[in-house]
Specification:
Elements (H helix, E strand, L loop, with lengths): L2 E6 L4 H12 L6 E8 L1 E8 L2 H7 L9 E7 L14 E2 L5 E9 L2 H10 L12 H13 L2 H10 L3 E9 L5 E6 L4 E4 L4 E4 L11 E4 L4 E5 L3 E5 L4 E3 L4 E2 L15 H7 L1 H8 L4 H13 L2 E6 L1 H18 L4 E4 L14 E7 L5 H12 L3 E6 L5 H5 L2 E4 L12 H17 L3 H18 L2 H14 L4 E6 L3 H16 L2 E6 L16 E5 L5 H13 L3 E6 L8 E4 L7 H4 L1 H14 L18
Parallel strand pairs: 16-17, 16-18, 18-19, 19-20, 21-22, 21-23, 23-24, 24-25
Antiparallel strand pairs: 1-4, 1-10, 2-3, 2-4, 5-6, 6-7, 7-8, 8-12, 9-10, 9-11, 11-15, 12-13, 13-14
Helix pairs in contact: 3-4, 4-5, 7-12, 7-13, 9-12, 9-15, 12-13, 14-18, 15-18
The protein binds 5-amino-5-deoxy-1-O-phosphono-D-mannitol.
Length: 588
């Protein structure tokens, strides 16, 4: 939700900020804006995608060696120029970009209105520059004014502040992502590392209430503790090419293809950490998996594997529903949180609750230094590299393979997964081959005009059906719904009409029952797409996927990721930026 970037250094800020915005656009693409300081504050913003707005408003025409910029995913207030960031104080001397939600903005607005301030947008953000202006008018110390103003905010924020009163950029965070990049005589502050990856790989991860002053140096204070913090610089091993499209037309296709490599990388884990996690899971009186979206589907998949392979019962919760079951958590519980970004607000909130109850927190996450990593007792990284497309593809299969590794490790069969990965590598290679893509394109052409589609599976294939439905609906806007095969006759089959596409996931274990379900659907007129290792007369279209048993959730989803991509292209939807969506959901 929203991407922010700031720069202080010797180069021209506007081109660096524009580049950063392009790399952050996956976080929101409703509107964008920029502010650059060159004695005076200059601001430009508008509604639309980054490249369109930058051209129209001539972002590169702004000269100065420090600035801040924002790309917006609208939460408070519609998609209008007035609501686009940066927001200015009434005297136009202070500019702020913000990601998060200021919960007490109404109260602060009332306070400021009483002091004579006016408001020009519907956003919660606009209170911040005005609160700083108010505090500055009282004691003429800009850094102190920013500290005082930020201390009055309730809710979540990652903010960057630029002002004609101060030669630098101020950055601060509370429950929203923000990371500092340290270059040669230059600093960056951004929602995510890809925003400045081409300039530096040295980063400073920030904690809640950190308040950073960036000018010729970097100083960090903690607003809560009222003390200066030691700056700790870490190095990251992501490469610039990982965050670029390269020869691919879209990040989605690039990231689907990368699965040949990323699955192996997910298994590169420190054995000691893995063993510690396995011991925690073994000793736990109850285990909860919490996650959202695709990560939730990975968790659900893993719950079947924990049951069948390790004989362990797991409670799987959509993170936003977890508070309803919070009273089952105690110091003997393990909460395993799964998140690509490590910044999903509901996941972080669940972890916070569980920690208060004394539970052990383990996480599986892709982004090093993310809030979830810092809130966990132990964590495993997916090692999938940056995932830029709003849709989870490579991170999903990496989550599944890593959770599969955990299930096998619980029964001391860790090596078995490592052995199987080579076979899996060949299968994934075939699944992302040109032959497969041609076949999937043909299927996409056949079903591209459909309004509804159903996916069905049983057992381990049911979460795959859920993930398949999510992939198709979120990028092609075809209504897609998943069902366990056994549920159809309890209502859903009423929706089947002549040629309604139904994707059926078949495994060796469940083949008899699921084929029988497919036959029932076909007798009501459905167009059956079989994802199976062998063809069957009931299939109108067959996607051949070799049987990989407990790895079926990885192999069976890949052709459907490709199908979702092809459907998006045929329906003229942007695969990397689906409407109304943002990559990280950092608000509840
Ligand atoms: O970063 P997270 O894994 O916590 O994100 C969870 C969901 O927001 C994410 O999986 C979302 O559902 C994707 N759009 C799925 O493709």
């Amino acid at each position: 939700m929203c991407g922010i970037i700031g720069y202080v250094g010797n180069k021209n800020a506007s081109s660096i900020l524009l580049n950063g915005l392009k790399n952050l656009e996956y976080r929101g693409y409703d509107s964008c804006g920029i502010a650059v300081l060159n004695k005076e504050l200059q601001t430009r913003k508008n509604v639309g995608k980054v490249s369109e707005v930058a051209k129209k408003e001539n972002f590169l025409g702004l000269m100065g060696r420090m600035g801040i910029a924002h790309t917006r995913w609208a939460t408070h207030g519609g998609v209008t120029k007035e609501n686009a960031h940066p927001h200015l104080s009434n005297n136009k001397k202070i500019a702020v970009v913000h990601n998060g939600i200021i919960e007490n903005h109404e109260e602060l607005k009332k306070f400021l209105k009483n002091k004579g301030f006016n408001f020009y947008s519907e956003t919660d953000t606009e209170v911040i520059p005005n609160l700083i202006e108010y505090e500055f008018s009282r004691n003429q110390d800009f850094v102190q004014a920013c500290k005082k103003a930020l201390k009055r905010l309730k809710g979540s924020y990652a903010v960057l502040i630029l002002s004609a009163y101060f030669d630098g950029v101020i950055a601060s965070r509370h429950e929203s992502p923000l990371v500092i990049g340290v270059g040669d005589n230059e600093f960056f502050a951004a929602s995510d590392i890809p925003a400045f990856l081409e300039y530096t790989k040295k980063v400073v991860y920030l904690y809640d209430y950190d308040f950073v002053v960036l000018n010729k140096n970097i100083k960090i204070f903690n607003l809560k503790k009222n003390e200066e913090i030691k700056v700790k610089i870490s190095s990251i091993d992501w490469s610039v090419s990982q965050a670029k499209k390269g020869d691919f037309e879209h990040f989605m296709l690039k990231e689907i293809n990368e699965q040949v490599e990323t699955l192996k990388k997910a298994l590169h884990q420190d054995k000691r950490v893995l063993n510690k996690i396995v011991t925690n899971l073994k000793n736990a009186k109850n285990i909860f998996f919490v996650a959202c979206g695709s990560s939730y589907h990975a968790a659900l998949t893993a719950s079947y594997l924990f049951s069948s392979i390790a004989n362990k019962q797991v409670n799987v919760m959509v993170a936003s529903e977890f508070p309803n079951f919070n009273h089952f958590i105690n110091k003997n519980s393990v909460v395993l949180a799964i998140s690509q970004s490590g910044e999903t607000a509901d996941v972080l909130e669940s972890v916070k609750y569980a920690k208060q109850k004394g539970a052990k927190i383990i996480s599986i996450v892709n982004v090093m230094g993310s809030s979830l990593v810092r809130d966990s007792d132990e964590f495993l990284l997916l090692n999938a590299g940056p995932e830029i497309c709003v849709l989870s593809t490579k991170s999903y299969t990496s989550q599944v393979v890593l959770l599969t590794l955990l299930a096998y490790s619980l029964v001391k069969k860790y090596e078995e997964v490592l052995k199987k990965i080579n076979y899996l590598w060949n299968v994934v290679y075939y699944l992302t081959s040109e032959n497969m893509k041609t076949k999937i394109k043909e299927l996409a052409r056949r079903i591209k005009n459909k309004e509804h589609l159903f996916t069905i599976g049983r057992g381990l294939e049911y979460p795959t059906a859920m993930e398949a439905a999510l992939k198709i609906k979120e990028v092609s806007y075809i209504h897609a719904e998943a069902f366990p095969g056994g549920e159809l006759k309890h209502g859903t089959i009423a929706l089947i009409e002549k040629n309604t596409p139904c994707i059926v996931f078949v495994s060796e274990k469940n083949k008899h029952l699921i084929i029988s379900n497919a036959t029932e659907l076909k007798s009501r007129g459905a167009y059956i797409i079989g994802v199976a290792s062998v063809n069957n007369p009931v299939f109108d279209f067959w996607i051949k996927v070799p049987e990989t048993n407990s790895f079926n959730p990885i192999t069976q989803i890949i052709p459907i990721q490709l199908l979702a991509y092809e459907l998006a292209l045929l329906r003229k939807c942007n695969p990397d930026m689906p409407r109304n969506l943002a990559k990280s959901v950092t608000v509840k």
